[in-house]
Amino acid sequence: MCGIVGIFGSPDNNNVKVFESLLKLDVLRGEDSTGLVAVYGEHVKHIKELGETYHLLWGEEYLNTIKTNNKNPNLLLGHNRHATKGNISIENAHPFNYDPISMVHNGTLIAHNDLVKELGVEFESDSEALCYAIAIFGIEKVWKNLKGAASVVWYDSAAKSLCMIRNDQRPLKLVFSKNNRHLYFASESWMLDAISNRYNIVADKIISLKPNYFHEFKIINNTLTCEYKELEEYTYVNNLMGYWDKVAQKWISYTKKRA
Q: Strand, coil or helix: what is 159?
């Protein structure tokens, strides 16, 4: 289990402090490492630290580049890792970056190197393999070959868009600001409820991202826009269930013959 939180929208003085609150809450979903993606116009910054959230928020790199920055970010995307595949290390901490993709992932993949086997590369971390595959092949091809649990959020610096998708094995919740200029997201609804109660900045309705629907958000003239479409998912689970259905039918047939 890992956690994803973030804010995307027009630059605003509240963005950093609201994001920090979300990231502190998100530590309950992972204590092995903490990381973020910060976007200031054309500039994309990645910060990673081992351990809980405070190691990052009190770290020199965060204090010098985020807290003291005179500009406000368009995007703050955070991740708290609970390691399931790959060692606990800075290299395996999220976010992962393969231009133009900066990505975080919640979930555990099966046979993750199958996503990149035609490229002749292998990765220790399933999330890093996923990021590399999206950067090379695009999400549509990757999604229909992805096996396992996934809630994925990434920033595409070429398209200047925030992208997200999940399957039914991992959650992702969304809510918009009252002025509809900011999108807030988290792995759990109560995190969004908490910032709503504390800062009084979000609309009432929390949305659960629909499984297998790819969403792409952009900022155009200080206004959020969104395009979405359903993607074909891998049918591993369906095939497995079909296999066990056949086994059950054979067993029923066998017991009837014995009776």
A: coil
